[in-house]
Design a protein that fits this description.
Blueprint (H helix, E strand, L loop, with lengths): L4 H13 L3 E3 L5 E2 L5 E2 L1 E3 L8 H19 L4 E5 L4 H11 L3 E4 L12 E2 L7 E9 L3 H12 L3 E10 L3 H9 L4 E6 H10 L5 H12 L7
Parallel strand pairs: 5-6, 5-8, 8-9, 9-10
Antiparallel strand pairs: 1-4, 2-3, 6-7
Helix pairs in contact: 1-6, 2-3, 6-7
């Protein structure tokens, strides 16, 4: 759920500006899931642009405070949200931890890196939401360690129905700075994409798992 329309438009514009969002309907990307996609989102690029990462950091921090007050801990989901999660935690003056997809097979075999005490409240930071499975996997690991999850804030979501259902089933509240609709709209307004590409991107969103070029 996008909390602020102006923030959504501005975030989409910035992501397009630094090519964090790559739109290529003519030569689709292959996702790990096997889906073919005319769009690829790499929000880690944000970290290379100080003014933009500061904007994203502050907007996420504002949403965290507005929605949840100050939690005890900020958690980032590895690896994409470690950087921005740490920046948000620093901005809010809060402890930071991050969650791996699974426990390490060596050393201390941690899945959660950092100090988390039983019963502490946590807001989870993500960079990108597709189906939501990896994000919710991190939530489950945190809950298993005794954390009380207040919610999740992410930079961007594709807004898939499957993600909405997954978050609903797990009773986790999700808010994002921007989403697919705002991104495609802004890309069209700024002539980042042509009219035919705009139509392709809207068509893909209707049934991404079955989409073929």
């Amino acid at each position: 759920m996008v909390l602020n329309k102006d923030t959504a438009k501005k975030t989409a514009e910035l992501l397009l500006q630094i090519n964090a969002i790559k739109l290529n309907p003519e030569n689709p990307f292959s996702w790990a899931s096997g889906w073919k996609s005319p769009i690829y989102c790499d929000n880690r690029i944000i970290l290379s642009y100080p003014p933009i990462r500061n904007y994203v950091r502050e907007e996420i921090a504002k949403q965290v405070e507005e929605l949840y007050g100050k939690p005890d801990v900020i958690a980032g989901v590895a690896t994409g949200a470690i950087g921005i999660g740490m920046l948000v935690a620093d901005y809010l003056g809060l402890p930071f931890i991050y969650v791996r997809p699974e426990a390490k097979s060596h050393g201390r075999q941690n899945q959660i890196e950092g100090t988390l005490e039983d019963g502490q409240t946590v807001v989870v930071i993500e960079d990108l939401i597709s189906t939501g499975k990896s994000s919710l996997n991190a939530v489950k690991a945190l809950e298993a360690s005794g954390a009380k999850i207040k919610g999740m804030v992410a930079i961007f979501t594709y807004g898939f129905d499957v993600a909405t259902e997954n978050f609903k089933e797990n009773n986790i509240e999700l808010h994002t700075l921007s989403d697919y609709e705002n991104l495609v709209e802004r890309a069209s307004e700024t002539n980042y994409i042509k009219e035919e590409q705009f139509k392709t991107l809207l068509e893909w969103k209707k049934n991404p798992s079955q989409w073929k070029q």
